[in-house]
């Protein structure tokens, strides 16, 4: 999601005006979905009442900033907020979920799959606490999310009142913007700032409101400063900055001098696909894709060697080990063993944040700026590499690697299914515009390696927090933000079981959602980690859950596969059945998720 948000131009007639104020903060035009054009801006906001309440102002501004969904669970700490959302339900849909953690993951998923502002809300105390894991996913992956929590009555704070939690302190590490709304006049300004911070700085903005403050009316509020003098900027502007000409020239000289240039591309490139492709072709440089950038280029594109790192491919590792120059674009891929060896290669890095330059690998030149603008200005300074042997060698290695994957997928070694075989079938049969959402565990590696992403398909996961239970909520978010596309979750039984009640959310809303669960009755990745430490397996065995039966119990469709002959018929049936479907694949817990250099048939 990083670096793909693009605000449309602002029509001054869209500015937010509330009755009774001569000049107030105006919310920005909406950020369109990832593939949307600038005319995908939100409808002009409108006040719901001549004398709006605090939460009516909050909802007005969220709509003005392009929020289309708010995920959460109702509760007495946010009842006024829920009523304000109900009144505007034609403009922003409240989606009730079964656990607030899922609500936060879904808000993060709105940003990851749709490139727009995600919103979640929770009641006082326990509800707010439940949000945290999903909010940290948004923080660490740079997903713009506004989280709204209720708090106890304003005069009961600090009095050990039931469910009284200091939510501002609670959210301090997760949120880059974190404020308590004191009343409707305050809301006019602080909600606008929260949305701008979430989108502009790419992270979580948290707002908490005492339950009695939520219902206060603007006419009864007495701001300390004339609103005309405290007016905020009326929009968020995407920073299209690029480095200085001298820096660009220095970077170009390093890249032009290289004879074996390799590119490591992360999610920060997702807004610059054409620029990355042109640059790679000019330099004759194979592109290794970090996990969240899998959809940057189709996996069969001649310029890519696929993924990199423990989830990646052997050719990507080999390209990094053989290059004399590395160009790191919008990535902080954490596995340092997969970068060039120290002293082996010269380095150039492009990122929107200065503190990421040199974070994983030393570079001579760090270019800080917008990815698309920077690459567009760098491109004319580059010479076309006429010696294509390094790229040709990487392409040859990719052919060998893909042949190895096909052999693995076609080989059965034990009675239960190889997960690679099941994932390959899903990859082959999934629609061209499918959205894939991943969980965390061995299933992540099997999906990252054995799904061949095609042009037009989407990809999301918990990239930095690496949280189990993320796959289903992210897929639900994908189905909401792109109702015309099939949303597919690939999960393990351990991760799915954590938030499996959210399947009923998908059923309630009749989402076109398919869930492939690689069911091995174990926390397999931890099992292998324990073995690597020389320890016996302990605490990793899970009781068996029949997820197909569970799906039917909550109103979805459930299908199972336990033999190779079952796999493709089960997946075909699932993909052709309307509504939510669970594919329960009984796979081998002893199938290891190995590093690319260790993969064998």
Automatic annotation (TrEMBL):
<dbReference type="InterPro" id="IPR029035">
    <property type="entry name" value="DHS-like_NAD/FAD-binding_dom"/>
</dbReference>
<feature type="domain" description="Thiamine pyrophosphate enzyme TPP-binding">
    <location>
        <begin position="439"/>
        <end position="584"/>
    </location>
</feature>
<dbReference type="Pfam" id="PF02775">
    <property type="entry name" value="TPP_enzyme_C"/>
</dbReference>
<dbReference type="InterPro" id="IPR012000">
    <property type="entry name" value="Thiamin_PyroP_enz_cen_dom"/>
</dbReference>
<dbReference type="InterPro" id="IPR012001">
    <property type="entry name" value="Thiamin_PyroP_enz_TPP-bd_dom"/>
</dbReference>
<dbReference type="InterPro" id="IPR029061">
    <property type="entry name" value="THDP-binding"/>
</dbReference>
<feature type="domain" description="Thiamine pyrophosphate enzyme central">
    <location>
        <begin position="248"/>
        <end position="378"/>
    </location>
</feature>
<keyword id="KW-0786">Thiamine pyrophosphate</keyword>
<keyword id="KW-0670">Pyruvate</keyword>
<dbReference type="GO" id="GO:0019752">
    <property type="term" value="P:carboxylic acid metabolic process"/>
</dbReference>
<dbReference type="GO" id="GO:0000287">
    <property type="term" value="F:magnesium ion binding"/>
</dbReference>
<dbReference type="InterPro" id="IPR000399">
    <property type="entry name" value="TPP-bd_CS"/>
</dbReference>
<protein>
    <submittedName>
        <fullName>Pyruvate oxidase</fullName>
    </submittedName>
</protein>
<dbReference type="InterPro" id="IPR011766">
    <property type="entry name" value="TPP_enzyme_TPP-bd"/>
</dbReference>
<feature type="domain" description="Thiamine pyrophosphate enzyme N-terminal TPP-binding">
    <location>
        <begin position="55"/>
        <end position="168"/>
    </location>
</feature>
<dbReference type="InterPro" id="IPR047211">
    <property type="entry name" value="POXB-like"/>
</dbReference>
<comment type="similarity">
    <text>Belongs to the TPP enzyme family.</text>
</comment>
<dbReference type="GO" id="GO:0030976">
    <property type="term" value="F:thiamine pyrophosphate binding"/>
</dbReference>
<dbReference type="InterPro" id="IPR006311">
    <property type="entry name" value="TAT_signal"/>
</dbReference>
<dbReference type="Pfam" id="PF02776">
    <property type="entry name" value="TPP_enzyme_N"/>
</dbReference>
<dbReference type="Pfam" id="PF00205">
    <property type="entry name" value="TPP_enzyme_M"/>
</dbReference>
<keyword id="KW-0732">Signal</keyword>
<dbReference type="GO" id="GO:0003824">
    <property type="term" value="F:catalytic activity"/>
</dbReference>
<feature type="signal peptide">
    <location>
        <begin position="1"/>
        <end position="35"/>
    </location>
</feature>
<dbReference type="InterPro" id="IPR047210">
    <property type="entry name" value="TPP_PYR_POXB-like"/>
</dbReference>
């Amino acid at each position: 999601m990083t670096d793909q948000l693009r605000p449309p131009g602002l029509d001054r007639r869209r500015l937010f005006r509330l009755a009774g104020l001569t000049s107030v903060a105006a919310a920005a035009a909406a950020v369109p979905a990832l593939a949307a054009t600038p005319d995908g801006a939100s409808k002009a906001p409108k006040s719901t009442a001549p004398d709006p309440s605090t939460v009516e102002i909050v909802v007005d501004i969220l709509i003005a900033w392009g929020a289309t969904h708010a995920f959460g669970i109702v509760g007495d700490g946010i009842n006024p907020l829920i009523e304000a959302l109900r009144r505007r339900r034609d403009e922003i849909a409240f989606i009730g979920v079964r656990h607030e953690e899922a609500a936060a993951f879904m808000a993060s998923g709105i940003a990851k799959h749709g490139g727009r502002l995600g919103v979640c809300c929770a009641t006082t105390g326990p509800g707010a606490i439940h949000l945290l894991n999903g909010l940290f996913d948004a923080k660490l992956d740079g997903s713009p999310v506004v989280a709204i929590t209720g708090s106890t009555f304003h005069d009961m704070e600090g009095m050990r009142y039931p469910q009284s939690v200091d939510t501002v302190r609670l959210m301090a590490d997760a949120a880059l913007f974190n404020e308590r709304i004191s009343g409707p006049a305050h809301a006019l300004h602080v909600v606008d700032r929260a949305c701008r911070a979430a989108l502009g700085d790419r992270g979580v903005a948290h707002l908490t409101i005492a339950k009695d403050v939520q219902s206060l009316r603007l006419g009864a509020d007495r701001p300390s400063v004339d609103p005309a003098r405290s007016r905020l900027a009326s929009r968020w502007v995407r920073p299209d900055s690029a480095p200085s000409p001298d820096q660009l020239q220095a970077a170009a000289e390093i890249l032009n001098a290289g004879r074996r240039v390799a590119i490591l591309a992360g999610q920060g490139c997702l807004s610059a696909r054409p620029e990355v492709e042109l640059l790679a072709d000019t330099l004759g440089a194979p592109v290794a894709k970090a996990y969240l950038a899998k959809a940057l280029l189709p996996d069969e594109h001649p310029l890519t060697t696929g993924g990199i790192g423990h989830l990646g491919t052997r050719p990507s590792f080999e390209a990094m080990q053989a290059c004399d120059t590395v160009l790191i674009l919008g990535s902080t891929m954490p596995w340092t063993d997969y970068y060039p060896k120290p002293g082996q290669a010269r380095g150039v890095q492009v990122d929107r944040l200065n503190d990421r330059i040199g974070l994983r690998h030393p570079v001579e030149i760090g270019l800080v700026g917008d990815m698309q603008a920077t690459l567009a200005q760098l491109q004319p300074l580059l010479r076309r590499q006429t010696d294509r042997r390094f790229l040709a060698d990487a392409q040859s290695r990719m052919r060998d690697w893909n042949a190895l994957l096909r052999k693995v997928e076609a080989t059965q070694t034990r009675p239960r299914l190889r997960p690679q075989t099941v994932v390959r079938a899903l990859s082959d049969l999934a629609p061209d515009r499918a959205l894939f959402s991943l969980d965390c565990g061995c299933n992540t590696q099997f999906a990252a390696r054995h799904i061949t992403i095609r042009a037009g398909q989407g990809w999301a996961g918990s990239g930095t927090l690496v949280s189990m239970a993320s796959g289903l909520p992210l897929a639900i978010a994908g189905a909401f933000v792109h109702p015309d596309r099939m949303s597919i979750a690939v999960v393990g039984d351990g991760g799915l079981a954590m938030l499996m009640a959210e399947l009923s959310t998908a059923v309630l809303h009749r989402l076109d959602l398919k869930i492939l669960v690689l069911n091995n009755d174990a926390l397999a990745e931890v099992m292998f980690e324990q073995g690597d430490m020389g320890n016996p397996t302990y605490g990793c065995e899970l009781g068996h859950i029949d997820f197909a039966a569970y799906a039917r119990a909550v109103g979805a469709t459930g299908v199972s596969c336990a033999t190779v002959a079952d796999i493709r018929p089960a997946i075909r049936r699932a993909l052709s059945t309307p509504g939510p479907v669970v594919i329960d694949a009984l796979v081998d817990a002893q199938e290891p998720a190995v590093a690319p250099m260790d993969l064998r048939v």
